[in-house]
Fold this protein.
Amino acid sequence: MTTKLFGEPVRRREDARLVSGEGRFLDDLGQQALAAAFVRSPHAHARITSIDVDAALEVAGLVAIYTWEDLPAGVAEPLPLLIPHPALTHGRTAYPLARDIVRHVGEPIVMVVARDRYLAEDICSLIEIGYEYFKPVVGLEEAVSSTHLVHQDVPGNVGAHLVQEVPSAGGQSAAEAIAAAPHTLAFRLDIERSACMPLEGKGVYARWDADDESLRVYSSTQTSTSVRMAIAAKLGLPLPKVEVIAPDVGGGFGVKIVHPWPEEVLVPWAARLLNQEIKWTEDRREHFISSAHERAQIQHVQVGFDDAGRVLGLSVEILHDHGAYTPYGIIVPIITSTQLLGPYRIGAYRVEFSSIYTNTVQVTPYRGAGRPQGVFCMERTMDKIAQKLGLDRADVRAANFIQPDQFPYDQGLIFQDGRPLIYDSGDYPESLRKLKDLIGWDEFPALRESARAEGRRLGIGLGCYVEGTGVGPYEGGHIQITSDGRVHVSTGLTSQGQGHETVFAQIAATELGVPIERVSVVTGDTRRFGYAVGTFASRAAVMSGNAIALACRKVREKALRVAADALEADPRDLEITDGVVHVVGSPAASIPLATVAVLSNPLRYAFDEEAKRATQFATTGSMDRPPVAEGEEPGLEGKGYYSPIRSTFASGMHAAIVETDPETAEIRILRYAVVHDCGKMINPMLVEGQIHGGVAQGVGGALYEKMVYDEHGQLLNASFMDFLMPYATEIPHIETDHLETPSPLNPLGIKGAGEAGVIPVSAVIAAAIEDAEGFPIDRMPISPSDLYDLRLRSPR
Amino acid sequence: MHDITLYVNGIPREVSVPARRLLSDCLRHDLGLTGTHVGCEHGVCGACTVLLDGEPVRSCLTFAVTVAGREITTVEGLATDGRPSPVQRAFAECHGLQCGFCTPGFLCTTTAFLRENPAPTEEEVLEGISGNLCRCTGYQNIIKSVHRAAELLAEEPT
């Protein structure tokens, strides 16, 4: 490897088109397509008694109106439950268009196809739907105690119930360990709903080719390969006749991994039926009320600990709100309950969750996917232990850390991928040391005192997390070197702004020894790579990065073999530098990769200069052997798959200093520090970018963002005007430091980084506010009015 | 339908639009300039920001017919003779974008902002971009990009 690009802050190759307005996002495509729009339920729980389209039929420009009754067998079925689990005893999914009953505001009922979107929406407004109203179930505790049911056949509104228990080394249960502990605490924590809110909503554009009987679909998705399989199955088409492409995607953060969305089935179905191109672009209100939310949980915690603050027993009961449907199974509460343990080695652990139906938008993973809630629970617990014992909060954490010599460390639980929760590597004491240095933990008391002298109120908090990343089962990569010396890389998973084109090109250029300018990367296009899982769970760099490296190694080996023949050298003496294969120490004996690519294909019409040049190396070959030897293939290309034994565990620690206004209760983050360990970094600039973005979403979730439902199940703040996402003025400068403990599980030694930034933020901010104010902060997000109310109720 | 002429990126463009056609839709779907993006349709996110006679406006809150005869600059018009503008170069250099969906709005906003204030302070930069939402970057590198753009603009021959 002579062209060293792995680990360098290489500038992004995506940016040239994105800063010039030449990106191609979903709604930039299909300018001639018909437009689809949807009539969505304005009621949270109702029976549809009538649908009257008479007035709508008068509108010029109308092409078609569809209700559930119009759908053929495959399309009319409920959408798939993607990830079943034995504990999910009452999983329910929606119909693509509502059949009889609607269960949340925003559920699609009628699909309209018209000449353009303005007309389609005019037509939607003329369709009259009659309803018989039911009492909606809103709020977790109401859902659990309610006699009203979201689904008539789901008693108690409980979709899933799961208990996991890990006894102590001495065989004690959590209950026994807590009962026997010198100190105990019991408390309740609340986390509200938020959502991914990518700046680009979802969208689908479908083209049916009647001559070829094939379908091409563009979707703003995090998994084009699985959308393809879903469409082929639902429409009864042969898989090779369906191609799905994720174009430039304007952010995902989890919501676009759910598939197929109703529109991903309906738009292609109608495009084929009408033999017309159709496009649907989600608007912002649709995204609020018809896609997905996350986070809402209530946690009841009991903990027993010793004089040093070491946790002897921990018992957590979680109520998880999964909204009206469970298309993504119970991944979120499973992750909360398993990743809750963080970097700690605790005595005995019991976790029990109930996943509950409510008449609200469904809940599926949002960046962090249940981890922010788990970390909130564990870190609030650590702070409360320190408070009870009068110990330093960092010291209590240090007393509970898994030590560097204890890896691999088995937490005794089953993780989201169904495999044992075994941490592969890490150095938590070193992370904490770096974090304390970075934020000035030991100097803070002096800072607080000097601020207090000025009448200012400061607090400091910290939070630690471990994040399982790079979940399987696999990803693949394909490399082709063509006779012009270009390197074409493809992988099936998709990109939503992470910079995959850049980092995968860095990996390929490094592995193959070629200039990065010659490498091009395609992601999320099933025409190029058909097998993939998708981009979620901080897995793209780990999974596709390693798959591409493995594919490159195969191609490199073949290139050296072919070049060795031509140069009459031993492949072991060959090296590739700047796209040229040469004998080590003898640069004159060389052959460009472009020429090797020609040589690797015995059919050599001289279409170009390279082919002509290759003839000088052509050997006659033995007449006793076929031109393509057994086990060989023509061309200089190769495929590699990476399938990990289990997830690799990144980690990090954050700290913040906040100031609260003694009068207005305004909360300001003065400093925010991050120490992050994602193993070897492919591109530190992009890792930092991921952290910044994650922290910003975390700050949104800690201080501003919540979904406000009223008792009728109406989402009261379904717009950017009312759902408060942070602007630049709300985000503090983020200070970062890194630690690199390589993963022993994969060839590149990398761990995922995509979600990390968001995970501990609510815990850190809560801790810092608590430190400033002197009373517990157990419910997030927290607004100035919330803090003001808490002050009134909490005598200082 | 109304026949209007818009001067988009220096070129007169004739277009026939209904009165309710938004400028954002007119640019994107009638004129094929899809670089201007629509993130919220109600003027909060700033992704649709274009320059109207040099001033940043929300094209999703503007009817195309109301700007007939006016000069409009979109992200496609920021480069000069195919060379990206200092603002565009600064965003690429400082990793000031990730998914790139909000970026055209930030680029237009920043272009107008630095024209008015070529050497802004940290506070002024925050204020200058505080009407645009980004969900990917956490803004830190956008702030850096704006400062860098100011440097690059200062180095440009006038």
Observations:
- The longest strand of chain A covers residues 457-469.
- The domain at 163-194+293-471+645-793 of chain A is CATH 3.30.365.10 (Aldehyde Oxidoreductase; domain 4).
- The CA atoms of residues 472 and 644 of chain A lie 6 Å apart.
